[in-house]
Amino acid sequence: QVQLVESGGGLVQAGGSLRLSCAASGSIFRVNAMGWYRQAPGKQRELVATITSGGSTNYADSVKGRFTISGKNTVYLQMNSLKPEDTAVYYCYADLVPWGARWGQGTQVTVSQ
After folding, report:
1. CA 104 and chain centroid, separation
2. Which residues, 6 or more positions from 73, have their beta carbon under 8 angstroms from its beta carbon?
3. β-bridge mates for residue 65, sequence order
4. 78, 19 in Cβ contact below 8 A?
5. What DSSP character marks residue 55?
6. Dihedral sign (CA 74, 58, 112, 80)
7. pLDDT tens-digit map of 18-73
8. Could you tell me the sign of the dihedral formed by the alpha carbons of 77, 83, 89, 93, in that order?
9. pLDDT tier at 1 (50, 70, 90 boundaries)?
10. Given this model, what pLDDT does residue 72 score?
11. What integer pLDDT is reported at residue 73 of this predicted model?
12. Are 17 and 38 contacting, i.e. CB atoms less than 8 angstroms apart?
């Protein structure tokens, strides 16, 4: 069994900050990569940021310079200068050995004007 437990979502005013966390637990041999995706109402799920076990990071253009991903078995997403268009359900993602791709339950981030 493996579990991804997310926390840190909430309501914030535009320009504010939030920090999301996601902890991977269970019988995990290795974490290849972890990251965050988001899905806004009526839109497809999109990549926000990922980090590999070696520390390489990748960001969506829309969040570069504002969001920072860090961590290993627990991954963090520091979100600064939030905009209303960042409003979405944020999902933690992990590529785990031997389990493959796993998703968290999602956490709501709402940015008000």
Report:
1. 9
2. 23, 24, 28, 31
3. none
4. yes
5. -
6. positive
7. 999 999 989 888 999 999 999 999 999 999 999 999 999 999 999 999 999 999 88
8. negative
9. confident
10. 86
11. 86
12. no
> Which string of DSSP letters, residue by residue, matches 63-94?
TTTTEEEEESSEEEEEE-S--GGG-EEEEEEE
Alpha-carbon 77 to chain mean position = 6
Q: Which two tokens stand for residue 110?
A: 């709402």
**Token pair for residue 60?**
């969506």
Residue 57, both tokens: 């990071």
Q: Which helix (H) or strand (E) holds 45?
A: none
**Would you say 97 and 32 are in contact if contact means Cβ atoms under 8 Å apart?**
yes
User: How big is the chain by its Cα radius of gyration, in Å?
Assistant: 13
Record the tokens describing residue 86, joined without a space. 């960042």
pLDDT digits (tens, 9 = 90+) for 60-83: 999 999 999 999 889 999 999 999
- Reading the block at residue 105, the tokens are 């339950």
Q: What pLDDT sits at residue 34?
A: 97
